[in-house]
Structure formats: C-alpha cells, structure tokens
dITP/XTP pyrophosphatase
Amino acid sequence: MSTTNTSRSSIQSTPDNQWVLASNNKGKLAEFKRLFAEADLDVTIIPQGQLDIEDAIEDGLSFVENAIIKARHASRISGLPAIADDSGLCVPALGNAPGIYSARYAGEHGNDGKNNIKLIADLQPIRTEHANKPIKGLFVCVLAMVRHADDPLPIIAQGLWQGEILETAHGDGGFGYDPLFWLPELQASAASLSAADKNSISHRGQAIQRLLAQLPL
C-alpha cells in the first residue's frame, strides 16, 4: 500500500513518511489500496491492523465526527499521522438511514447480507405507497487526516455518490450495499462495476481526490 512517486516528497510527516489508515474493514482496505496506489504520494500507508490497533468506538453523531474520532485513535496509539474513513448509505425516504449505522443496520456489525435484507424490508412500505417511483440513495464518504492525535486542524474531505436503491441484489462484486445501489446513467449496480470503474466515480474515490488536493505541495 505504498507509492514511490516523489513529486510530493516535501510532505515529511515523519522521518519514514508513514501514515496509518484507520480501518480494519477488508472491503474498504482493498479499495484504499487501489486508490492510494494511483495517488501521487511519496508516503507509505499502513493499515492499522498491521500495528495491532483495534477499531475505535464510533460514538459521534455524524460521518465527520466519526472519521475524526477514528483518525485520532489510530494516531494516538501509533504516534503517526492517520487517515480515517467514515462512510455509509443515506436514503432520504428513511430519514437518511442507515447513515452512520450502515455497517450495523441489522444489529450485527459487518453482516452485509442481513443489512441488505433489512434495507429492502424497510423500503417495501414506501415502494407500495409510491409504486413505480425510484427510491433515491446516496453513498457518503468522509475522510479525515490528522498530523498527530491532538491536531486542531484535521483535513476533511467528502465524497457523495448518487443512485437508486434496488428491490433485489444485482452484481456480485463490491461489498456492503453495492448490490442494491443502482446507477441509472450506467444501467449497472455498484456491485457490477469493475474496481477501476468504481474507483473513478465512487464516493470514496471522490473523497480521496479532494483530500489529496488539500495536502501541501
């Protein structure tokens, strides 16, 4: 998860130029690995699991709060700068649920199958009442970077990806709610896109590009 480009070599966060990625989510880590490999950084990105850092307690009330909590947690334990992601699916028809509870919407953290089943069930009354009307959804990703655990000025970047919520799963790639996230302009679900295509337009891909744009040259 490292790159060797030198055009950003002036970013000397630590003598070894190492940043911690505050996530233990395998799906997110795979996407971040590809995205950071494409980025113009002279930095080694270390998943927090390699440093035996457990997940932080996410007790914020927003994506921004939770991203900062996770970044500070990883930075405090590692002594390194840290980047954290907090992301999820917001459905306006459900008051923006699952929102920050996306990973544990059905009560069990990280059970994609149960989360998708609950989302389909929760949307069924709305579909019945508004037949043939697409249900909008929004994937959200907020990235927070702290240079040290008590950094008073975290770098914040947000990506939003708009689509529609399907009644049944479509595609066998991706993770989370990807099989239910339909992109009308592509006539495809997020789960049916290639990794490269998904990264080029996804909420996470957008957020990383906006984060990189804020880093000092």
User: Anything to note?
Assistant: The beta strands are 18-21, 44-47, 82-91, 97-98, 136-146, 155-165, 181-183, 188-189. The chain has a mean pLDDT of 89.
